[in-house]
Design brief:
By secondary structure, the chain is an alpha+beta fold. Among the domains are: 7-82, Nuclear Transport Factor 2, Chain: A (Roll); 149-211, no CATH class. 18% of the residues lie in helices and 17% in strands. The chain is built from seven helices and nine strands; from the N terminus they run ααββββαβαβααβββα. The strands form three sheets. The protein has a four-stranded antiparallel sheet with strand order 1-2-3-4, covered by helices on one side. The protein has a three-stranded antiparallel sheet with strand order 7-8-9. β3 (58-65) and β4 form a beta hairpin.
Length: 304
């Protein structure tokens, strides 16, 4: 039901301005009159623009009222209220809800959440040695709270879609996946079916949880492929001016044979065979003397 028009309260503009000037730090912060708003029966609010810096869209609001059949306006309350286009602060959110991953620093402590859906009560020993050994020693479930199925699912999705999943540029460009790398440390439990920890100091993911289908250039079983060259292989260069000085080893003189001991008797000399007479060449036939040349022969030789 709309409020009935109240002439007495709507005419109390000067009274409302005086109150606005009293609550403002500076008189010039009270601007032009913006009108009256009927809040209820015999209850009207007068609004004045606020000209203070940083309060654009805000208005000084003074609410006046009167008693039934009264002819005098009385001030109920006065305050600075935001308008439709006012600059407002963000809605207040508790500190525990404002935190984001990475906000926790050294010495910061998160508030305890007893109803955290990511956790569930840990394992309670049953007294059975076989069951307790598996749950406590192998699965490490002997804690007050452990990961719930929701916590494991959220962690798996966050890790797989993060910077160490299979869709990163480094993983796409890698030649092999992490599952075949020798530096991979497996995880226990259900998360070990999809994730492991990198233990390669040369990898950008050293000490981080990576998916098994992730990859990087520091894989243990890969190497840089040789890149073929478009240039022909150059001919070998021979330096004909260089001289290699080689030292010639001196021949080693042979040591003289050791003298025979004096006490040994000389070996008996063998009797020499009798000297045979030198063979004389056999005498051949004597040469026949040539005849002395005659006068006829001399004339023939002279050509006469």
């Amino acid at each position: 039901m709309a409020a009935v028009k109240d002439a007495v309260l709507e005419r109390a503009v000067d009274l409302a301005r005086e109150v606005a000037l009293e609550i403002a730090e500076e008189p010039e912060y009270v601007g032009e009159y913006l009108g009256a708003v009927r809040e209820a029966e015999r209850l009207v609010s007068h609004r004045f623009a606020c000209t203070a810096r940083g309060y654009r869209g805000w208005a000084w609001t003074v609410t006046v009222a009167r008693v039934p059949r009264g002819r005098t306006a009385t001030v109920c309350e006065a305050e600075l209220l935001p308008g439709e286009d006012a600059i407002l602060a963000r809605t207040w959110v508790p500190w525990s809800e404002r935190l984001r991953p990475g906000d926790i620093g050294a010495g910061d402590v998160l508030p305890f959440r007893a109803d955290d859906p990511r956790l569930e009560p840990g394992f309670t020993p049953t007294g059975d040695p076989e069951v307790d050994e598996v749950a406590i020693d192998e699965l490490a479930l002997a804690r007050v709270r452990v990961l719930s199925p929701q916590g494991r699912e959220e962690a798996a999705q966050r890790w797989y879609r993060g910077s160490r999943g299979p869709a990163t540029p480094g993983a796409v460009a890698s030649a092999a996946a992490c599952w075949s790398c020798g530096f991979l440390v497996p995880l226990q439990g259900s998360l070990g079916q999809l994730f492991a920890v990198c233990a390669n100091e040369w990898s950008p993911d050293d000490g981080k949880v990576v998916s098994l289908d992730h990859g990087c250039g520091a894989h243990s079983e890969t190497d840089v492929d040789p890149v073929p060259s478009d240039w022909p292989a150059p001919d070998p260069l021979l330096d004909e001016n260089a001289v290699d000085v080689v030292e010639r080893a001196e021949p080693v003189a042979e040591e003289p044979a050791a003298a025979e001991p004096a006490d040994e008797e000389p070996a008996a000399e063998e009797p020499q065979a009798a000297a045979e007479p030198e063979a004389t060449p056999e005498a051949g036939p004597e040469p026949t003397p040539e005849p002395a040349p005659t006068d006829a022969d001399e004339r023939l030789s002279d050509g006469s």
